[in-house]
Amino acid sequence: MKKLLLIALCLSSASAYADNYKEPPMSEKLKSLWSDPVLQEKMQIGIEHNRKGDFYLEFRDWKNRPVKVENLKIEMVSHDFLFGAQIFLLGGFDTPKKNALYEKYFTELFNFATVPFYWGRFEEEDGVFAFGKNDKRNNKMPSQDALVEFCKAHGLAMKGHPLSWYISNFWGFGNTGVPEWVPSDEREIEKYLTRYIGKVAERYSRDICIWDVSNEASDTRFAREYMGYVNTYPFDHAFKAFKEAERVLPHSNNLIVNCATPVWLRTAKYGEYGQDYLMISSLINRGAKVDIIGLQLHFFNRERRAALYSGEQWTPDDQYAVLDKFATLNRPIHITELSFPCMGEGAIGEEKQAFILENFYTLWFSHPAVEAITYWYFVDGTAGAENVYNSGFLRRDFSKKKAYEVLDNLVNKKWRTNLSFPEAASERHFRAFYGKYKVSFEHNGKRVEKFTILSNGKRVADTLSLTKRARNHFIIIVE
Known about the structure:
Elements: H1 2-14, H2 28-35, H3 37-50, E1 52-60, E2 70-79, E3 82-86, H4 96-109, E4 112-116, H5 119-122, H6 144-153, E5 157-161, H7 186-204, E6 210-215, H8 220-226, H9 237-248, E7 255-259, H10 263-270, H11 275-285, E8 292-298, H12 302-310, H13 316-327, E9 333-339, H14 347-366, E10 370-375, H15 402-414, E11 418-421, E12 427-433, E13 435-443, E14 446-454, E15 467-470, E16 473-477
Parallel strand pairs: 1-16, 3-4, 3-10, 4-5, 5-6, 6-7, 7-8, 8-9, 9-10
Antiparallel strand pairs: 1-12, 2-11, 2-13, 13-14, 15-16
């Protein structure tokens, strides 16, 4: 009964126009906050300092003598920064054309994909794990095997989401947390959850190295006492999930504690005394392997959007304060889930969405602690009870919204390095965004191509085809 009541309440609150409610316009205060020249300069300096570096290339022969090459091109293949979305709908549309468009637009915009691992969806029967392409499951999510195969073929980094989440039947989307067959006993749930995490790690630890280990744990009390969710999830479940993940995923340095949207307001107001900061600090201090701090931001709440549009909350200063506060824990930050609705406002709503996303992405990209941004719903009309929000980058007919064009311009044009040096030279210095690059040049009438990672040294680079002399200094051997 509680679950049915919860779903009804969520659907009621989601329908923003059921009571003739009208979305407020963006205030002049909000616009002035984001157009402030001091803020704009701060973000641009942050991007230049935190997302780019100086690099040096030397061209030499096998005897270590300088060699001059011509028509040198340095072309970015993909960002070091992770721009992503969840990819739950791959192959899930009703025509081949739609599925092809989904794949095309996803891979054009993103280099990072969130793969679903909701326990209740993929172990609907005791000991029957529906990970494979032909495994039977009662939901429309693609198999993890198919998703991993697709992401590897298109060079997409992957994140598994989530290993542990105490919520079931979230907003009527079906069982997301504890499967219905598991006995309602804390010890039994812990036993079977541990088994599930182990099975996931056994099958996917080689392909997926980033994991949302604990999802929304700092809101457990609220969910139990006010939302009516089950209260038998294991005591101290976030800590136990991290210890198990550390055990079965020993090679991953990307284990995430993922906090729900209220984390921003709570941390802006209470700082280190907010429940999210206290929970993460406690996990770290007790020895949980928390590698990354994850922050969600869904603007599904009417009051939340009104506070944003008025310029009273979610301000640039508030966001910097929250990011700076969590950065004191010496962990990188991922924006793990992001949704901004267009509601039923047509072009006006899409303009608002594009304005907010352009500014939020720019601020987060400028901050030294942020390493990834994941948007949640890529296509309108695909989010179950949340369809009313129209928060996708694509309309239901797969036409692009302005938000898509804005992010495409940032990721693929403005924040991208492509350089050409036609004249002959044996060494080059240049400044570039961190990422994977194709380096090509001409020598003795032949065109040569090599690939390398130009990074800030924080990430473990792929195997390089260039000889690295020192940090950001590469020697290319020319035959």
